[in-house]
UniProtKB/TrEMBL annotation:
Domain of life per record: Bacteria
CDD domains, sorted: cupin_PMI_type_I_N_bac (cd07010)
Top-level class of the enzyme under EC nomenclature: isomerase
Reaction equations catalysed: D-mannose 6-phosphate = D-fructose 6-phosphate
ATP-binding in keyword set: no
Organism of origin: Thalassobacillus hwangdonensis
UniProt keyword Zinc present: yes
SUPFAM superfamilies in the record: RmlC-like cupins (SSF51182)
NCBIfam families, alphabetized: manA
Protein name as it appears in the record: Mannose-6-phosphate isomerase
Length: 318
């Protein structure tokens, strides 16, 4: 029986819009000064996490999902269902939209579409995201895209640290410059670019846009999804539910002291965004610190936490 937390080595992605905050804030060894993404908990083929400890050390999360399904409560599915990232947007990300599961299967041949959510870790004062659009009908959306009426079409929202956004598939969105977020999403890498500010990449060419697919999958009209943040206190742990929906539940944990007897419905994904502490399982302690990404497997019946830290925890609702 695997009776300890699983620590994962993140995978890093260089992006046109990336910077150095992943190193500055979390101490990661990043590949360049254009590092935009840390894939902290990933079973995706484009960047699987590698297990750092225990009897599965050296295996990828995808391999563990394939061969040790008991760690995940016997959950069904060909692929690990969730992907947890930390993003650093030194520059604006492209304006984009993602398909739902049905479109992803029928058009892209992939298992999952992409519903996601964002917790703002830090940002510059006055930083903004694009979240939704102003078109009333699909015809109006298509016309505004064709005419390049981006200032009229796109809806901007100012952000601050601690903000949370639930971004269902079909939502036009973009993370603006100067923002670091933790993103929990379905395990999908399908992105349709709607607008990219006419930028060119390192090859001197503009990046590909996906206008027809974007028009097909965008939800019209845009409606902000309801987010009901709920807090509870368990000993030295304040738990705040950020979202509970079809694919995942995401929580913000503020640890200050100790909590014992935690038990999860199955396996839990945990990312440490501030501080340090210990996970205690059957009298054994496992130290964690800011920047760590951890899975508490379903084979751990109960566990405790000690320390002073801020964590984002999630689980699959499949």
């Amino acid at each position: 029986m695997y009776n300890e937390p699983i620590f994962l080595a993140p995978e890093f992605k260089e992006r046109l819009w990336g910077g150095t905050k992943l190193k500055e804030l979390f101490g990661y060894e990043i590949p360049s000064d254009y590092t935009g993404e840390c894939w902290g908990i990933s079973g995706h083929a484009n960047g699987p996490s590698v297990i750092k400890n225990g009897s599965l050390e050296g295996k990828t999360l995808a391999e563990a999902w394939e061969t040790n399904r008991e760690l995940f409560g016997g959950e069904e599915g060909d692929e690990f269902p969730l992907l947890v990232k930390i993003l650093d947007s030194k520059k604006d990300l492209s304006v984009q939209v993602h398909p739902d599961d049905t479109y992803a299967r029928e058009v892209e041949g992939e298992n999952y579409g992409k519903t996601e959510c964002w917790y703002v870790i830090d940002c510059e004062e006055g930083a903004e995201i694009i979240f939704g659009h102003h078109a009333s009908t699909r015809e109006e959306l298509e016309q505004m895209i064709d005419d390049g009426q981006w200032d009229d079409l796109l809806r901007t929202v100012k952000v601050k640290p601690g903000d949370f956004f639930y971004v269902p598939s079909g939502t036009i969105h973009a993370i603006g410059a100067g923002i670091q977020i933790l993103e929990t999403q379905q395990s999908s890498d399908i992105t349709y670019r709607v607008y990219d500010y006419d930028r060119v990449g390192q090859d001197g060419k503009k990046r590909e846009l996906h206008l027809e697919k974007s028009k097909e999958v965008t939800t019209v009209p845009h409606e902000d999804p309801a987010v009901d943040r709920k807090k509870s206190v368990e000993q030295g742990l304040v738990r705040e539910q950020l979202v509970e929906e079809n694919y995942f539940t995401v929580e913000h944990w503020e640890l200050d002291g100790a909590v014992e007897g935690l038990s999860d419905r199955s396996y839990k994904l945990v990312s440490v965004i501030e501080g340090e502490g210990e996970i205690v399982v059957d009298g054994s302690s496992y130290s964690f610190r800011k920047g760590d990404h951890i899975i508490i497997p379903a084979t751990v019946d109960t566990y405790g936490l000690k320390g002073k830290a801020t964590l984002i925890a999630s689980h699959s609702n499949k």
